[in-house]
Structures are given as structure tokens and as C-alpha cells.
Amino acid sequence: MHLTSLHSLLMNWESLFVVPELITLSFFAVLFQVFVFDVGGKDWKFYDWSQITTVVTFGKYDPELMCFAHSKGARVVLKGDTSVKKMVDPVVRAAWINQQVDLAKRQYMDGINLDIEQHVMYSSAEYYALTNLVKEATEAFHKEIPGSQVTFDVPWTPDYIDRCYNYSGITHACDFIFVMSYDEQSERWSNCIVGANAPYNRTLTGYNNYIRLGINPKKLVMGVPWYGYDYTCLSLSMTHVCSFAKIPFGGPPCSDAAGRQVPYKIIMKQINNSLSGILWDQEEKAPYFEYKDSHGALHQVWFDNPRSISLKAAFVKERGLRGIGMWNANCLDYSNGSAAREQTQAMWEALNPE
Ligand SMILES: *[C@@H]1O[C@H](CO)[C@@H](O)[C@H](O)[C@H]1NC(C)=O
Ligand SMILES: *[C@@H]1O[C@H](CO)[C@@H](O)[C@H](O)[C@H]1NC(C)=O
Ligand SMILES: *[C@@H]1O[C@H](CO)[C@@H](O)[C@H](O)[C@H]1NC(C)=O
Ligand SMILES: *[C@@H]1O[C@H](CO)[C@@H](O)[C@H](O)[C@H]1NC(C)=O
């Protein structure tokens, strides 16, 4: 493995100096992050490596991916998930962290993305254990693997129901947090009317809420969805109001649990058979379409495309966030047809609008 590109040079510089957070943040702000989740297979061969700074591997370990990423100056990091309840015990916590560091070293990896999406109550033992876990994991990784990166995944807003974490403590403790700006409807609906997965205003409100907690924008990476939701409408009006079945989630009567997640590549294949063609919702700043399935049921599909994503990516730049990323990179069509290639390239390019 020869680390040759500018990214790897900077990556190594970072590890040479132990500097206070503020200095690191301003100096390395030049390093705009493009944070990519990969769920396995060989799609990664067709990613836009001119942009990628980190690949989080949710799939099976692939040494070929690791070497390729390093040749492009990108980091490859582990997925970290564990029971927060077990992490309350400092001995168990230290053992788990050691295991992750050892695994990362054995696989020549460059850090870990902690994806712990568990219910935690304010001021509970788990609440403190989680902040300590992030702090101790970051210290261990930075010490054992110089230049490594430790990040933590958070919901689209800090007041998300049932995940009462010490967000400022967690953010301060790690390199940056990845904000999952999607599934934003899961707690909203009271009237069971279908809407966007990641509406523009709602997405921005989430960042303002994190920043209001005292979190530096340079420690926030925006996550955009490369998937949408397909809902079966109980009724669909001429003005495109789709009402759907009630499935409870937490408290409110409706949720996106009534919808089915669909990758962008599948959505794009369905559009020619839609009743509506691509429509645009002015308020939510998101595209959608409608179709009738083989049983005659009407569906509404909401998703993100280059138009909606580039609006959010422009906010990332304006607000001075650390970068952007997506769940997940495998959702695009990497086949070799010219239409597929154009469609896929447009999605990658939307991450970095002019
Ligand atoms: C959050 O964590 C930080 C750092 O550990 C700590 O100083 C702060 O008191 C915590 N805040 C709350 C509300 O628990
Ligand atoms: C959809 O229709 C357009 C125009 O007829 C065509 O160029 C395109 O290839 C079709 N796409 C799919 C996925 O069939
Ligand atoms: C979105 O936010 C802007 C500015 O905060 C506001 O003017 C506008 O009314 C909002 N739109 C919706 C649909 O909430
Ligand atoms: C993709 O198609 C082009 C011609 O359209 C061909 O030159 C190229 O080798 C193909 N690439 C792959 C990876 O199949």
C-alpha cells in the first residue's frame, strides 16, 4: 500500500501533531469530507473516487476495497455497533474498544463509525456510558492507529424521540458526527398524509438544532438518502394527496413504517411506467411520482435526486459544515449503459454543486 495522494499526506500530517481541537478544525477545514457508506459487493469499483474521503464498510471485509481506497487517499473504517446496556460496565467497554482497535489494525483500517441507534433515556446509566464510549474509543483509536478517524451517527435532529444522548459531549469527544438527514417523517404524521423522506426545511432545521447546542458546524457531516419510500395510498386525490395506512411508531398514529424503502436505481427504472412522471413538491423541495401496481393499487413514491440533493449540498457549503455523505453508495445503477452512467454520475456530482 503506497499512500501517495494529497489526502493521504494530510491524513499523515494530522497524526504527526497533537494540536488543540480548534486549530485542527480550522487547519483541516480544507479537507471537505465525502463520507460514503458501502454495504458490500463490488460496486465500489465504480464510485467517484475523486471525491471520497472515507468509506464506512457495512458489508463483509474486502481487502481489495481497502487497498484500492488507500491508493486513492481515502480512509476505510469499521462499522461499530454494540449494546449500550453492556457498555455501562467500564471493563466491558474497554474490552469492546480493544477488540475494535485490534480488528481495525489487523485489517489495516483507519478508524470506526459508531452506529448505535438505541433507545437511551436522559441521565440514565446508558446516557453517560454512551458519551464515555465515544470518548474512550476515540482516544484508543487515535493512540493506536495514528491518523485514524472516529465518527458517530446521529438522527436528523437532536430532539428525535427516544434517543436522548449527550450530543454535545459525544460530538466533542469524536472527530465529527454524521447526521442521518432522512427518515424524517418517522415521528411526524398525525394525519397519515405521505410526504418527503428528507424535506429541505426540516433537514436544515435539524442542523440549526445541533448548532444551537453549541456544536461547531465543522463537526457536522450531512447524510443524504440515496433511497426513497414507496407508499400504497388508501386514497389518492387529484391534487396528489396520498393518505396511507396507520402503523404506530412510538406515539403518533402514522409513520414511514407504512412505506417501503427503495433504492434510487429501482425508482429511476419505475418512472417510465408511472402515471404522473416526476413531480416536484415546492414546499418540501423533493421529487415524487405515482403509479398503479399489478393489483390496481395506487402508490406514491418520494425520493431524492440531483435537484433536491444539490439544494442541500449548497447549504452544507453555505453553512460551513464539514462535509456530506450518503446512505448508501450502493443504491445507484453502476451498470455500463450510457443512461445508467449519466444518471449515476449526476448523483455523485450533486454532492459538490458549484
Ligand atoms: C455532556 O458531556 C460533557 C463531556 O463529557 C459534559 O461536560 C457535560 O456535562 C454533559 N452534559 C450533560 C447535559 O450531561
Ligand atoms: C424511459 O423513456 C425514455 C424516453 O422514452 C428513454 O430514453 C429511457 O431509456 C427510458 N428509461 C427506462 C429505464 O426504460
Ligand atoms: C422554510 O424556511 C423558510 C426560512 O426559514 C421559511 O421562510 C419558509 O416559510 C419555510 N417553508 C416551509 C414550507 O416551512
Ligand atoms: C463499458 O462500455 C464501454 C463501451 O460502451 C467499453 O469501452 C468499456 O470497456 C465498458 N466497461 C466495462 C467496465 O464493462
From TrEMBL:
GH18 domain residues: 7-354
PROSITE patterns associated with the record: GH18_2 (PS51910)
Predominant localisation class: other
The UniProt record lists the keyword Glycoprotein: yes
InterPro entries named in the record: Chitinase_II/V-like_cat (IPR011583), Chitinase_insertion_sf (IPR029070), DIAC_cat (IPR047898), GH (IPR017853), GH18_Domain-Containing (IPR051887), Glyco_hydro18_cat (IPR001223)
Biological process, per Gene Ontology: chitin catabolic process; oligosaccharide catabolic process
Gene Ontology MF term list: chitin binding; chitinase activity
GO cellular component term, pick one: lysosome
Ranges annotated as spanning the membrane: 16-37
Role description: Involved in the degradation of asparagine-linked glycoproteins. Hydrolyze of N-acetyl-beta-D-glucosamine (1-4)N-acetylglucosamine chitobiose core from the reducing end of the bond, it requires prior cleavage by glycosylasparaginase.
Designated name of the protein: Di-N-acetylchitobiase
Originating species: Salvator merianae (Argentine black and white tegu)
Lineage: Eukaryota, Metazoa, Chordata, Craniata, Vertebrata
